[in-house]
Write a structure and sequence with these properties.
The chain has helices spanning 77-87, 213-222, 226-243; strands at 13-24, 30-42, 54-56, 62-64, 96-100, 103-104, 112-118, 124-132, 138-143, 157-160, 174-181, 185-194, 197-210, 265-266. It is mainly beta.
Amino acid sequence: MNSRVTDQRDCAAWLLTGQVMHERLRPRRHRFVYPVFFVRCNLARLASLERGWFGVNRWRPLSLHTRDHGPCDGSDLDTWMRAQLREAGLPADGEIFLQAFPRVFGYAFNPVSFWFCHDRDGALRALLAEVRNTFGARHSYLLSAPDGAPINAATELVCRKVLHVSPFCQVEGHYRFRVRETQQGSSVAIDYHDADGLLIRTAVGGRLRPLTFGAAFAALSRQPLLTVGVVARIHWQALRLALKRVPFYGKHPAPGRAADVPTQHRGAGNVPRAARPSSSIEEIQP
């Protein structure tokens, strides 16, 4: 069975209403769960999404700005992503959906955005995880199944950690992603392993429904400060970790310990081929 929501063929945008769960296992256990909502947009059909309450590259109560994603230059995201897929030797002939926090009243911060890339038959063939930290850097991981097969709920997508995300973690080890999609909902689980093993579990998921005025108004009414709250909660949880005396590595941590973990994903990016790392899209400092 294809690992995508089959009804997406007929819908240009979806609203995912659910939760983010984050759990640190050591040296102190630390767990939190927050309600969130995302938009998931068909990149080839962005022009059709303009409404009085939702905009693309313009101010609206909810909006999606192309300069916030991909090359971050305002260019066409569908064209850019298909170029990355072709360069990585992956199918680039299906629909591509971007799932991200929308701008809410003009403001957004996305710790992670997901690009779901399908083939012409509707099977999920690649996942781009676009990660940002609060220090102004970002890094994207282009992931596919090791054997090139369609991605399903049993597929583990593995990549080496490259970007410094939290001052309470070193830059070492690897991530393991798992994607689960049904007609009712979607989830992405991310396990982070450092040199000592599993350290952090994260899961993002919820219910999918078409992005209509009613669905968007209900979500916005419940969480009018969604994106401001994302940043506030990041700093609140950092304070809680500090109070628990979790080791603090700062903004520029020393190199982490070596972890001989194979990388199962491909790389692409806007750098000369000779300089391109083989493991992931390059880090971009704005």
